[in-house]
Structures
1.
Amino acid sequence: MIFESNVKEITDSHVHILLKDGFTLTLENDLVYIFAGGELPTQFLEKVGIEISRRFNYTMLSHKK
């Protein structure tokens, strides 16, 4: 967990995080979980290219390539 930070960019292989001191931390990744409060921001996620589907009563998200 990185407190007082904001996600700046998510790419296929990295997450760029803007830290409180103004520096950017870059982490390698191959999977990102989005915890965006009580309601999934479906319209926003679809608008930025994330496909949303349901399986076994869980919401599954995958990035369109």
Note: The CA atoms of residues 36 and 42 lie 10 Å apart.
2.
Amino acid sequence: MTVRAAKGAAPEPKSLGHHALLDQPVVLVLNRNWQAINVRTPAEAFCQMSAGNATGLDIAPDEAMRPVRWSEWLDLPVREWDAWVGTTRGHVRVPTVLVLARFDRVPRRRPKLSARSIRERDGNRCQYTGRSLAPGEGSIDHVLPRSRGGGTSWENCVWSAKNVNGRKGDRLPHEAGLTLLTVPKPPPELPVTFSLRNPHNIRDWELFLPKKG
């Protein structure tokens, strides 16, 4: 099987590499209610389609769309913007979006602990002063400093102004004359749809991912 891609905007195969395309996460997976729940490679998508577990979405430039079964998908024309793979029967279009046939749930997931997720949980406000922080003004503060045995956890990390964080140093908040506005805790689990990203800027994905604020 030869992996090739036609010129176009969605996806951008040149940035992925022709021979690596089958193993790139460029297929958005929807449950049977058409809610985004995962990302798969073309190789995985073709396996699910050929087994009858999923259909590919044929999406037109005007955003009209229809689910297509594997037997018909093999004969879909490859448009100038489509990625495709070469087979003994000719070029086969790579789907950008896959719809599962039977799975209807939306799994939930807690965000991964990181500076970004701490900032988002705390609303980009210093948890000691309540001030809304501009980009670059905030950092993670360990309520119980690491030098005193504090771990990196949802319960021990807050978003703080850098100058306040520096003033607190290796002290507990009350030792530095500070008071936490809220008790830090893990954020609620959210539908995985909200954690999906579109790193390759595939146009068709934007029809199913939450709009950016």
Note: The chain has two domains: 2-108+191-207, 115-176.
3.
Amino acid sequence: MVKYTPQFLAKLEDMIAESDYILRYEKGNFKAGYCLLKDQKIMIVNKFFATEGKINALLEILKGVELDTTHFSEKSKKLHEELTLVEAK
């Protein structure tokens, strides 16, 4: 289901943009490759990661975060449902 392509990364970024979280790519020495500020609803991913690393970091963040899907487009809702089904398995 997960494709490590720039197009899939763009879909994840679009889905997060439609949520109430802000996604930023910054340099830093994050131990897990990302930083999550839940109170401020900001996701920060290491900007030096390759596409695969960025996708893995975003998927890891999405496992631990509850997104508000009320403002999602149909494409984003479908992607979110697919990702939550993959998590359940």
Note: Residues 6-88 form a domain with the Zincin-like fold (CATH 3.30.2010).
